[in-house]
Amino acid sequence: MQYQPSQPEKWDIETDVVVVGFGAAGVAAAVTAHDLGAEVVILEKAPEGQEGGNTRVAGQGYLNTSSVDKAIAYLTALCGDYTVPEAMVKVWAEEMCQNNAWLESLGGDPQEHQHQPVGIEFPELPGSDCVHKFHDGPTYGYSLTWKRFESLVKQRPIPIFYETPGRALIQHDLTKEILGVKAQQGDAFIYVKARRGVVLTCGGFENNQEMIRNYLPGVPYCYTSGTPYNEGDGITMAMSVGADLWHMNNYAGPSMALKVPEVRTTFSMQSLHFSKIIPGGMIVVGPDAKRFTDEKYKTCHGKVPVNGRWMPLSTPCPMFLIFDHAMFSAGPLYDKNPSHGWTQIIERYDWSEDNRAELAKGWIKTADTISALASVVGLDPTTLDDTVSRWNHHCEAEHDAEFGRTLMLAPIVDAPFYAVELSPSMLNTQGGPRRNEKGQIVRPNGTPIPRLYSAGELGSIYSYLYQGTGNIGECLAFGRVSGRHAAAETPWQ
Q1: Which fold has domain 13-251+428-487?
Q2: Cα–Cα distance between 178 and 197 in angstroms, integer?
Q3: With 0-12 CB in 10 A as exposed, 13-18 as middle and 19+ as buried, what is 8?
Q4: Strands 365-367 and 432-433, how do they pair?
Q5: Which of 148, 213, 237, 439 could form a disulfide with 453 if both were Cys (CB 3.0 to 4.6 A apart)?
Q6: Radius of gyration of the chain from its Cα atoms, rounded to whole angstroms
Q7: Residues of CATH 3.90.700.10 domain(s) within the chain?
Q8: What's the DSSP call for residue 347?
Q9: Which InterPro entries match (predicted)?
Q10: Strand 417-426 relative to strand 309-312: parallel, antiparallel, unpaired?
Q11: Using an 8 Å Cβ cutoff, are 39 and 70 in contact?
Q12: SS3 category, 161
């Protein structure tokens, strides 16, 4: 592996702790280190106005557990056979119980989500009743909790350098200590000295197709509904200084969504939302023109039960949403209300009310018959005709004999007919450099790389199953852990 640059002749910026990434984990690390007396600088890849990572565009919930012992039992059960060291589980559980107290101590207003215990993703697992999902302030969604997190940094003298991605870690030749970060600004590089430590909080690799092909099972490609700036930078930086990796095959997905070249992130189709009932008939087929799942099934963040195991939802590519004119004319296929998701909140694409602008763009295909529609999208006409006919018979019988679907049992009969190509989609990946209970990034032999820490989705603790709101909760928990330990380092000379 190529050796990273040694200490430069001149440092452009000097500080105690460098935090790479400005999402919830970066906030918690930076605020904690600052409040313990360390000088802190944040390097952020996105331009100002698009910072916040997945935290900004997620549902805005964070996990606060009500019992350390029950949280230990629940996380251990979530891990299944993919065990996480007991010391890590213990620290996670202890810190998760402190998320509300920490936020309140800084002026926040934690409010529990309504409809508990519906938010418990795996209620059958031991300790699950410790799960409590919170957000800041009276309203859920719309980046409001992120705005609280962001304000904690903005209230402090913590410089934020936007459009300044970290590109390499600067490591001492002999001691292997991390001395700082080589970052990019435009076509130039700057060197940022970290007298005490570096904390990587720059997210996963959900917008890096090569890493997706290498690490994620079952998806030849996958597109993000979250920030497009998470391209695995922290993974490559950490690997280059000797870091081990873990949980690289785990991710919050897949779902099925529309991805077009004109927009960086995905569109979630309203008809595929578990809880939404849309007039008209629809199914989803794979490249063989056959259905492969209950299209209205509610996954557990992309996981479905298969033969006694939880596995990622099958997404045979390419996939096509097939529907009739009754659905097309019922209203917009995409909900542009800016409650969550990068496309809704940041891109703000103005989807037409009658879907005709998207039809004209070619995002939606149409034909007068199912056979003709199959030819338009490259499917076998006879097979698609048979698949739609079989679906229509299921609707007549009010029973989906193939996949047990119970919602929107409406036949596809109202011509013309339409198709939208769907792609696998996800909010985030969980894998990255392995960390220990102090937030230190470690080598394959388990020893820490001196002065290098991480938090958040970059090397998340979630190895198998994932509890909703757990990522932002972990960002806060291990952001504090890493911030505390980085601030406690003795400055190097």
Answers
A1: FAD/NAD(P)-binding domain (3.50.50)
A2: 7
A3: middle
A4: unpaired
A5: 439
A6: 24
A7: 255-426
A8: I
A9: FAD-dep_OxRdtase_2_FAD-bd, FAD-oxidoreductase_2, FAD/NAD-bd_sf, Succ_DH/fumarate_Rdtase_cat_sf
A10: unpaired
A11: no
A12: strand
How many C-beta neighbours within 10 Å does residue 437 have? 17
452 Cβ contact partners less than 8 Å away, ≥ 6 residues apart: 169, 178, 197, 198, 200, 238, 241, 243, 440, 441
Residue for token pair 């690490």: 215
Query: In whole angstroms, what separates CA 438 from the centre of its chain?
Result: 23
214-215-217-222 Cα dihedral, nearest 10 degrees: -80
pLDDT at 302 (0 to 100): 95
Which segments of 97-239 does DSSP mark as H helices, in order? Answer: 99-105, 144-154, 209-215, 233-239
Token pair of 343 as six digits? 């496309």
CB of 291 closer than 8 Å to CB of 391: yes
Q: Which fold has domain 255-426?
A: Flavocytochrome C3; Chain A, domain 1 (3.90.700)
CA distances from 466 to 78, 80, 110, 298, 469 (A): 7, 11, 22, 14, 9
Domain limits, CATH 3.50.50.60, in the chain: 13-251+428-487
- Torsion region of 467: left, alpha or beta (phi above 0 gives left; psi -120 to 50 gives alpha): beta
SS3 3: coil
Tokens 């011509």: give the residue: 415
Instruction: Note the pTM of the prediction, 2 decimals.
Output: 0.96
The answer to whether 112 and 37 are in contact (CB under 8 A) is no
Q: Smallest Cα–Cα separation from 13: which of 189, 142, 155? A: 189
Mean pLDDT by 10 residues, the chain (493 residues): 65 98 98 98 98 97 97 98 96 98 98 77 96 94 96 98 98 96 98 98 98 95 98 98 98 97 97 95 98 96 93 96 98 96 97 98 98 98 98 98 97 98 97 98 98 98 97 98 98 92
Say if residues 264 and 341 touch (Cβ distance below 8 Å). Answer: no
